[in-house]
Amino acid sequence: MSWIEEKAIEVRKQFRTNNVYELCALLNIPIIPQALGLKNSMIVTKNGKSVISVRPDAERWLKAYFIGHELGHYFCHEGIDPDLDDSISLPNKEKMEKEADTFSLSLLFIDEENVMSKGGTIESFCNATGLPQDLFREWRNVYQEPYND
Length: 149
Prior knowledge:
With 149 residues, the protein is mainly alpha-helical. It contains seven helices and three strands, in the order ααβββααααα. The chain has a three-stranded mixed beta sheet with strand order 1-3-2, covered by helices on one side. The model is unreliable at 143-149 (pLDDT under 50).
C-alpha cells in the first residue's frame, strides 16, 4: 500500500467519512461550481483558507472524483495545485497529479473491501456510492487485484 493510500485511510478514520462533500464541510472548504476552461477542478489556498472550484456540468460521481482529487492536493501537497504553481517542474507536476488521482480513488473506494466482505456486489456498491460500474471495474484493474463478478 502506498503512502497516498495510507493517507486516504487516515483521513477516513479521522473524519469518519469518505464523502467528499462532508469532508469539505468539516474542513470549512467551500465548493464553488465554476467553469474552469480546460480544467475540471482546482484548489486555491490563501492565508490558510482553501476553496475548491469544480465544473458545474459534471455528473455527480465525477464531481465527487474531482473534489477528492483536490482534497488529495490539500492533504498530500499542502493545498498546492501544481497547475497554478510555475515553480514546480513538469515531472513533479505529473507526479503530484497522479498522487491526487490515487488519493481520490482510494478515498472514494475505501469502503469497497468492507462492502464486498459482507456479501455486497459491485452493483450494490456502485449504487450506494453513485459511481458507474465501469469506473469501478477500471479502478480494480489498475489499482487492485482483479475482481471476479
